[in-house]
Every structure is written in structure tokens, then in C-alpha cells.
Amino acid sequence: MIRIRLAACAVLLCLGVTDASVAATPPAKGASETINGIAIMPGVERLSYVSPRYLGIRKSYDDCMAAAQGQVPSQGECADTEFTFQDARLNKAYKAVMADLASDKIARDAAQDAQRAWLAFFDKDCAARAGRFGSNDAPATLSMCRMESTALRAQQLEDWHGSLSPRK
Predict the structure, then answer these.
(1) Per-domain boundaries in the chain
(2) Does domain 59-164 have CATH number 1.20.1270.180?
(3) Residue 167's CB: how many other CB atoms inside 10 A?
(4) DSSP, residue by residue, the chain
(5) Which of 5, 6, 43, 154 gives 90 a disulfide partner, CB atoms 3.0 to 4.6 angstroms apart?
(6) Which pTM value belongs to this model?
(7) Sign, CA torsion 83/51/44/128
(8) Which of 20, 38, 16, 41 has the alpha carbon at shortest distance from 30?
(9) Which tens digit of pLDDT belongs to each residue from 100-154?
């Protein structure tokens, strides 16, 4: 019996059938998917599964959202408060990147163009997302999108600054 199992395993390995290839099979329609050990709900954008801690979103935001108890206007207020913090963080990181690039006009201009393009995208992207949820939830959805997008951009700029700064 053991020899049969070993032979079957050898055949499967030769054919390239492994646990990894089976795991790569898309889930059935309506079934949940797992990415990095996190169950992904069907129909939910994958970007929303980036860790809030990686993005620099504070625990106070999570606490505020929990206290909101699903009340959409309160959730929007939580997002607006966190957005103010994230926007200041983004501005600080942007200034640091621009200071790092002060001696390289071409790179500085390219960074400035990239930031302007991100700002245009940011406004349009969040407006489009919020519009999907109708008039009741749209303001809170817009606030959450703005906060999360700003936190992501702030993290990108902080990472960029870190890669430009001299190593200590």
C-alpha cells in the first residue's frame, strides 16, 4: 500500500500537480478566497486587505470605528479625523522627498509631476467609489476612501524618502 502511495505521489510530482498548483485554482463562484492567510470575501476589493498598521493608520481610528457601532455618519467622522492626521503625514513625507531631491532638478520635477497625477487620480477614484453606494452611504465612503488612499500615499512617500536618505 505504501509503494502505491509513493508511486502515485511520484506521478503527481512529475505531472506538476502540487499543493501550490491546487491552491492557485480560483475559488468557485461565491466561495471565499484566501490570500496570505486572510479569507477574502467575494466582491470585496483586495486592496482593502492591506494591513492598516502598514499604512500607518492609527489604532484610535479602529477604536473610533468600533465605537461608531455601524452608524455610517459616525464612521465618516472617524475617517475624517484620521484623514486630517494622514494628510499631515503625507505633506511631511512629500516635503522630505522633495528636500532629498533638491539637487536633482529632473528627479524633483518628476516627483512633483507624480504627486500632481496622484492628486488628480485620488479625487476621481474616491468620487467614483463613493458614487457606487448611493446617497446615504456615499459621504462616509468618500471619507474612508480619502483617508485610506492618503495613508497609502503617505506610506509610499515615507518609503521613497527612506530609500533616498543616507543610511546611518
Answers:
(1) 59-164
(2) yes
(3) 5
(4) -HHHHHHHHHHHHHHT--HHHHHTSPPPTT--EEETTEEEPTTS-GGGGS-TTTTT--HHHHHHHHHHTT-HHHHHHHHHHHHHHHHHHHHHHHHHHHHHTTT-HHHHHHHHHHHHHHHHHHHHHHHHHHHTTHHHHHHHHHHHHHHHHHHHHHHHHHHHHHHHSPP-
(5) 154
(6) 0.68
(7) positive
(8) 41
(9) 999 999 999 999 999 999 999 998 998 888 877 666 667 888 899 999 999 999 9
Give pLDDT tens digits for 34-84. Answer: 544 555 555 554 555 566 777 889 999 999 999 999 888 899 999 999 999
Q: What's the rounded Cα separation, in Å, for the pair 100 and 163?
A: 10
Q: Which grid cell is 22? A: 491546487
